[in-house]
Amino acid sequence: MRFSLSTLCGVVRTIHMGLWVLWTEIRWLLGADLTYRGRLEALRHRQSVVQSALACMVTLVDPRHKQLAADLALLEEDLTRLEAAQEAQRKALHQTLCARFAEC
User: Fold this and answer.
1) Interatomic CA distance for residues 79 and 84, integer angstroms
2) CA distance 29 to 25
3) How many Å apart are CA 103 and CA 44, to the nearest integer?
4) Which of 9, 17, 57, 91 is the most buried (most CB within 10 A)?
5) Distance between CA atoms of 91 and 4, rounded to whole angstroms?
6) What DSSP line would sit under 8-55, residue for residue?
7) Is the dihedral of CA 23, 25, 27, 29 positive or negative?
8) What digits encode the pLDDT tens for the residues 56-89?
9) Of 38, 52, 47, which is closest to residue 79 (Cα–Cα)?
10) % of residues, the chain, pLDDT over 90
11) Are 71 and 43 in contact (CB under 8 A)?
């Protein structure tokens, strides 16, 4: 079997790019993603608690219902903002990876 130099270069380039993708994903999962994951889980847990309390208050006609509904709206807004920030940071990370591939 004979391999041409261009085939060998293509294989090496593909392996090189694959290693960069792996390195980028590992950095994301062990770095920024852990930070976001912890904050998002805490917010989602708090949201669940507030939703449960709000559901109970609706059936009991509790006067604190409006305040709790406002708190829930703020929590949902915080969750949306944090998820958007997480996605923006991930896109920025992948843009640097795409820029690196454009150099190859």
Assistant:
1) 8
2) 6
3) 41
4) 57
5) 37
6) HHHHHHHHHHHHHHHHHHHHHHHTHHHHHHHHHHHHHHHHHHHHHHHH
7) negative
8) 877 666 678 888 888 899 999 999 999 999 889 8
9) 47
10) 25
11) no
